[in-house]
Each structure stands twice: as structure tokens, then as C-alpha cells.
Amino acid sequence: MKKLEKNTQTAVNLMKSFAGETQASMRYAYYAKEARKEKLIQIANIFEETSRNEAEHAKRFYKFLNADLMDETIEITSSFPVHLGDTKSNLLAAAGGENEEHSDMYPEFARIAREEGYAEIADVFIEVGEVEEAHEKRFLKLHENLATGYLFKKDEVVLWKCNNCGYIHEGVEAPIVCPACDHPQGYFEVFVETY
């Protein structure tokens, strides 16, 4: 790969991406705590997983920077969202951030990286953007399920798993209280074996 030069827009965009992914990771960790407080365990787990995903994106961008620009300082000007509300509003805020990344920011960063001769970096911007699109879809679906009452209720019989003890329940609705461990409905999620 071509040596990354400090005075390129790609170096600046990598640092912006590192900063953005790092703060998104922390924001999702905060959102997970709120969801857990609201006893929405599946959503808390998904926020925690997404937080780890964002940390890995940040690490990938930082590795590009560190490979050629170790001990350099890269100045950036960026703006980041401020939002910490209830889980329903946090899901919408998260989806909005993911949308901006995959529809605007990363495609533009990829275009610039390609123009500057950094094809590998451009490809990573595109691939990370695809992950962000999946994150957006997941957050929107969870928001829809929460808003419409379908987080713990379905139109057909499904399997529900308690995330505390592993109890499996078959029905159109998750139990109000787990009969095995006495944890509330918020610990249940639709159970799908895909392995």
C-alpha cells in the first residue's frame, strides 16, 4: 500500500473516523446501560455488541494512521451528536448516526481515498459503511418493535429465550415473568438457532 502522508485529506478522514467511531462506541455503551435500567435486556445486549463493533472500526482506522504516522498529530474539525434519553429515543438517535455514516460520510471518504491513491483504505471505508447500514436497520427494527408492542409479542407462535437462565418458552408472547428464574419479561428475546 502507498505510504499514508500526513498532509492528505485521507489522513484527516481516518482521524475523523477514528474519533467518530470511538465516541459512538462510548455512546452505545451509555445506551446499553439505559436499556438495562429499563429492563430491555435484548436491546442492551445489541447496544453492547454494536459498541464493540464501533470500537473495532476505530481500531482499524487507527492502525492505518499508526502504520505511517506514528507520533504525529493530526488536527481535525468535526461535529458529533449529543443525545442520551430513554431507550426508544436512543434507538432513533443511533439509527440517525449510522445513516449519516453509511449514506454520506464513508462513501465520500472512500471517494477521496481512491482519488489520493489509497485503494485499500477506500475499500475499508466502504466495508465499514456496509456494517453501519446493517446497524441502522437493526436499530430501526428494534425501535419499531418497541414502539408497536412487538418486542415481546408476535403474530405467530415463536420460541422465546430468557437471557438470564436460558429457559425456552413457546408462544405468541414472552412470559411476563420467567417461570424458571423469576426474571421479568424484559429478559426475553425471540430465540433462533442459526448454528
UniProtKB/TrEMBL annotation:
Domain of life: Bacteria
Record SUPFAM superfamilies: Ferritin-like, Rubredoxin-like
Cofactors required: Fe(3+)
Transmembrane regions: none
Start and end residues of each Ferritin-like diiron domain: 4-150
GO molecular function: iron ion binding; oxidoreductase activity
Domain Rubredoxin-like: 157-191
UniProt KW keywords: Electron transport, Iron, Metal-binding, Transport
Keyword Iron: yes
The keyword Electron transport belongs to this UniProt entry's keyword annotation: yes
NCBIfam families the UniProt entry points to: RuberyRbr
Name of the molecule in the record: Rubrerythrin family protein
